[in-house]
Amino acid sequence: MAPIEPARRVAVIGASGYGGLQSLRLLHDHPHLEVTFLGGERSAGKRWNAITPFLPLARDLVVRVPEPDAIAAEADLAVLSLPNGLASRLVPDLLARGVKVVDLSADYRYRSLSQWKSVYAAEAQEHPRHDDALCEEAVYGLVEWERDAIAGARLVAAPGCFPTASLLALMPFLSQGLIETSGIIIDAKTGTSGGGRAAKENLLLAEAGEAVAPYGVVGHRHTSEIEESASRAAGQPIRLQFTPHLMPMVRGLLATVYGRLRDPGLTAADCTTLLQAAYRQSPCVEVLPVGTYPSTKWVKQTNRALLSVQVDPRTSQLIVMCAIDNLVKGQAGQGVQCLNLLAGLPACTGLPLLPFYP
Amino acid sequence: MAPIEPARRVAVIGASGYGGLQSLRLLHDHPHLEVTFLGGERSAGKRWNAITPFLPLARDLVVRVPEPDAIAAEADLAVLSLPNGLASRLVPDLLARGVKVVDLSADYRYRSLSQWKSVYAAEAQEHPRHDDALCEEAVYGLVEWERDAIAGARLVAAPGCFPTASLLALMPFLSQGLIETSGIIIDAKTGTSGGGRAAKENLLLAEAGEAVAPYGVVGHRHTSEIEESASRAAGQPIRLQFTPHLMPMVRGLLATVYGRLRDPGLTAADCTTLLQAAYRQSPCVEVLPVGTYPSTKWVKQTNRALLSVQVDPRTSQLIVMCAIDNLVKGQAGQGVQCLNLLAGLPACTGLPLLPFYP
Amino acid sequence: MAPIEPARRVAVIGASGYGGLQSLRLLHDHPHLEVTFLGGERSAGKRWNAITPFLPLARDLVVRVPEPDAIAAEADLAVLSLPNGLASRLVPDLLARGVKVVDLSADYRYRSLSQWKSVYAAEAQEHPRHDDALCEEAVYGLVEWERDAIAGARLVAAPGCFPTASLLALMPFLSQGLIETSGIIIDAKTGTSGGGRAAKENLLLAEAGEAVAPYGVVGHRHTSEIEESASRAAGQPIRLQFTPHLMPMVRGLLATVYGRLRDPGLTAADCTTLLQAAYRQSPCVEVLPVGTYPSTKWVKQTNRALLSVQVDPRTSQLIVMCAIDNLVKGQAGQGVQCLNLLAGLPACTGLPLLPFYP
Amino acid sequence: MAPIEPARRVAVIGASGYGGLQSLRLLHDHPHLEVTFLGGERSAGKRWNAITPFLPLARDLVVRVPEPDAIAAEADLAVLSLPNGLASRLVPDLLARGVKVVDLSADYRYRSLSQWKSVYAAEAQEHPRHDDALCEEAVYGLVEWERDAIAGARLVAAPGCFPTASLLALMPFLSQGLIETSGIIIDAKTGTSGGGRAAKENLLLAEAGEAVAPYGVVGHRHTSEIEESASRAAGQPIRLQFTPHLMPMVRGLLATVYGRLRDPGLTAADCTTLLQAAYRQSPCVEVLPVGTYPSTKWVKQTNRALLSVQVDPRTSQLIVMCAIDNLVKGQAGQGVQCLNLLAGLPACTGLPLLPFYP
């Protein structure tokens, strides 16, 4: 095996959950990044292929305790897939050792640590934090809107799955002031893998199969994450409605976003053109023609976001739909995009964009 | 077998689709209504149990051509489960012969025939109609809001599945003027059985499985049906946003309804109390406590509608969720409720209200 | 409420798992049996309807610690839905107090306690048992084949879900010596609710959805349970192959049973006639015409078993297919059949036999 | 775009069904083969990307009428994904023009045309055939067992999905005479995409969802296809039992194969070693360790076949399990393997082998 190029050795920390699994899977096919360290507490000392017969890796690493020195010795970049609150214990040590970090948790998604503490109160209780400066320094990894900042960062907070789909739909309209900033409604639908791999009764097939239900109505934690970016884009504080729903499927996420147009003369064709312009430089985002609506199946196991927009001239309502794979563009794939930028590569390098249909 | 009580002999016309199948299934367990005529063009002359091994009926009828005289000779009531446009060819003849009709199609859901013609243009082309008077006479069969009118009617138009869930959520707030009449958004999710039993590519398991997608965005035909009743309740014309989504499951329908409260001081508890009061006399509707959200699984194969309401004090947004089984409360079960009222029985007679969980 | 007839008061012990839930659900609609005691450790002291919003019972009982004296004071019959090994701690005390018991666990399915200890070794370790006499006394609750013995029993061991479907298919042929006793193969398929309601990673929708896999290949514990009854029916020891598979659905179980005909001249029609004769007195079992094969959908949420048989004249192979709902005929429904017999009622009293299709 | 190497230009004929779709998808990522002709009757004249928004191809071809001269002008190889009977009308003309063909239909899977006519009687009626010589010439494209013959062929008949999984499991044991040739049972399970993309009632999500059922019991057409290869491997005529079942999932196929060991002393470890030896040169086939059983999820959207074997020492029964993706290794992927061999490339070139889990 040829030596790995400098700055392109990647540590994946926390590989047994879906975030870690997907990161490993995506990096396996990557032409320039290579996983050189596999960190996990529970499986430390075991070979990956022995414990994961369904995802054998060509480079079969031994899982190791995620100790900062060991990580820094073998990796230039790290992607952390850990429960909320835990990443903040590892990140300062990694940065201090020159390892750049993409964190898939919520720990660095807010500029203000105190806001994190109020939104993630239980985690804050369990993991006392004082890394205000890092929260301010961290870049929010919404690749299509923060490309340059990510490329120059040490620490990137990969967005949540719902914020990714919601913001890709909203940002073009908010940043240009085309919709009213009040009354925005995001009705989102996700497959159950969004709830993680830890066994929970409500995510059992017997419970979640043949069922659709809302959850976290008013006050879901992704609300504040969406609002933070949306407010910045709009240049004023935004309070919006976000309602997630659990779908009887493994993967896929659809956000149906409603906002009121300021200019009632704008048509669906106008808005489609505007979206196309906004994402012209973003090969992972595709805008569908007017009247074609995105199915989550069309993006399954890809890093693509599909957007479609419709306008009701009777009500001046704008409806923007965004479909992503919650585990790829909504999590690990966007993480790889961030790694790419940190490594000086084009954001989409090595990422699948075409689904296997059906 | 004891003779069937007068006025309680039922004809089911169009029994091979899901509407007819469910009607037969529900009536099979009914203590007072009895199916005495089974009408169908394609299967005429065959015994039901021979062609439907999965749903053998104790009273194994021969399927017959739905000829008005034959129907009138054997039935006092008829439930029609026919494609849109076709019911209108049969209804006048049945009424003329004294048979009261519950129509599961959209043919009589609008007071104005010309509106039907504009919304169902293709069907109007194929089935020329001039029964304006019947459109005006027909009662909209939303049982919980039209109980007395239905009981006194000759012709009842059973509501569509989406309008049923949407209106059960909206009516209490609209009729009391508690929400603004503009800006209402209904984001609805349905299982694929809502698309009927005729084979269509997009409803194949291989296509609709593991997929969530919007359809009919802006302009779905149920929009106007919902608006007709909502406007009447509000006492003013209402234009609202209705977006249906196809879910990867067999049955179940959830409407997530968003509206802006006129009085920002109203709490979720207040709104829950209001809903409970509105449906106190309606055993098929149940209001969940604040913070408990309905799953479609909780109403599967029942005629129950589950409501829950939440309020976001930051935005004054009201969120009302309504889960039903699209084939029961959303179609055949509501049809049986109407038959019950026509037969002088309590609306919920003989209808299942408790799910088999899971 | 009228007083409950003597001998028809039922205690349900362990109501939070699927076995208990289904028992409660089925008994809710029962015309003659009434749940008078609800036993559970974790929820003791709480009202059922408060903790189970999706299955509110008309008679809203307080969950109580399953203490034998308390149970005996309020119930004549008890159905136990407890983890393997736990029932054996409660059963002797209940019998001593005159309460007849239907046990849904495996504790009394073997005549020999030592066999139970070898098959359920882990449970035997945790729950030391010495109730050999009760094991010998207990009647195996396969209703269609043990009707009289059940009716006269104090203690009934309800069969497992796989044995129920497998034995309903095999017994008619084995008891008449029509198939060879070696080489029998049972290839079984079950929905994930068969794995219970306790959260396990492999039963998550994200894991079990869109997946089919065998498990417990060679040596699954139901093998010995099936063999015990099969051997008795054949009058000689039988060793057969049983392979269960996990299906991506909530409920339903199909056993595809292969055996070699002794008389190569027997046709599928002959075998169908034989099955019909065997189950003539069994309203819960229905034999389909030759060439019609049972779908688990056709029995969902019913206590019906659907059988179909085919013969390959080229190979003399007999193929018997049996579809049941794993939670009803495969568990709680068969339990209610046993309760019915203990209470002097026809076995099928109060049980649903017709599915809601689809 | 660089010019395509000679002998590596591929025509895909019949691209709207799943076989064609998957072929296009797989070839899209192929490093050496390039689709240069897209043939279809219904969509002729339209651009692929315009009619298939969910699978936009980098090289956006116009769909053309599949006329032999046109195909031969632009392609060296052709993969045909047409209904049974139709391929035989096109194949002779393509071969005559020097185009090598991989046919995904059943038209050339039997050495004897008359056997095809008896098994595919309806198709034979509609499409009269006299190409006996081509039937004899055609090579059966089970890559792992016919590598050299395929590499030297003009016409390859890609195996059916069930025969692929069944034969991969059986061939090592049959070819070495390790199992008895009578009494073999194949119990197979497939997702609904195996039924194709044409709309059929029984494949609707509402019908096939939450359901498991056998079909084609005794006499399914793949029986004879499996027997043809199995007989050849065993050196004697084999009659076996093959029973397919429809599963509620999109893709995936599992064959559970039962045979009796001739040497009762063989263990599961022995048999695993034997399988590993048999497939040592076959990177698309992987043998799992004893006690690990394959899930169809582990091969989804890959060209991998996962095998596992177990032995019951009590009964001398051998159980071989084989999981594949029915649309990849079971159809289009195996087709690409054949194209690779025809083009002088290693069989697995350009094919995905690792799933995206979950």
Quote the distance from N terminus to C terminus of chain A. Answer: 36 Å
CATH architecture of the largest domain in chain A: 2-Layer Sandwich
| Helical stretch tally of chain A | 13
Structural class of chain A: alpha/beta
Shape of chain A: globular
| Average pLDDT for all residues of chain A | 96
For the sheet with most strands of chain A, the description reads:
7 strands, mixed
Total number of β-strand segments of chain A?
Answer: 13
CATH topology descriptor of the largest domain in chain A: Dihydrodipicolinate Reductase, domain 2
Biggest interface between protein chains, with counts per chain?
A: A-B, 50 and 49 residues
The oligomeric status of these chains comes to homotetramer
List unreliable stretches of 5+ residues of chain A. Answer: none
Structure characterization notes:
The structure is a homotetramer of 358-residue chains. With 358 residues, chain A is of the alpha/beta class. Chain A has 2 domains: 8-137, 3-Layer(aba) Sandwich (Rossmann fold); 161-326, Dihydrodipicolinate Reductase, domain 2 (2-Layer Sandwich). Helices cover 33% and strands 18% of the residues of chain A. Chain A has 13 helices and 13 strands. Chain A has a 7-stranded mixed beta sheet. In chain A, helix 1 (18-28) links the parallel strand 1 (9-13) and strand 2. In chain A, helix 8 packs parallel to helix 13 (328-342). The radius of gyration of chain A is 20 Å and the shape is globular. Chains C and D meet through strand 7, strand 8, strand 9, strand 10 and strand 12 of C and strand 7, strand 8, strand 9, strand 10 and strand 12 of D.
